[in-house]
Amino acid sequence: MAVSRRRLTAVAAVALAALTTGLTAGCDAVDKALDCVQTADSIADSVTDLQQAVENAANDPTQADSALDSIQKNLKKIGDKTDNADVNKAVDDLDKAVGNVRTAIKNGDKTPDVGPVTDAAGELTKVCTKN
After folding, report:
1. What are 46-82's pLDDT values in tens digits?
2. What is the pTM of this model?
3. For an engineered disulfide with 117, which of 30, 39, 91, 97 has Cβ 3.0 to 4.6 Å away?
4. Cα separation of 116 and 49, whole Å?
């Protein structure tokens, strides 16, 4: 449940930031901020899927690849929609962490460390709520 509360808090923070930004910067900034947080929320879901897939790797090793693919697809969405340096850095960091997990799996690691992916996803959510 902590993940859900964290997401709810992030969404509320973004909504407040979006309202404030909307008063000063117009609708385009609000749309970008909301796109960022919505995609970050999708990434959080994919990170949860990845954690579960790693735990169940013996039953279905393809689940981890599917979760990694989903994260990278959503990262591309954020990267294509923003020109914010902090968001782009967070996207790059998360992409690198995903790549490291993918490499570990390809090298035969049945239980790769997904902690860096979780941390990078949290950072992305944080920078999305700032913008």
Report:
1. 888 888 888 877 677 788 888 888 888 888 888 777 7
2. 0.70
3. 97
4. 15
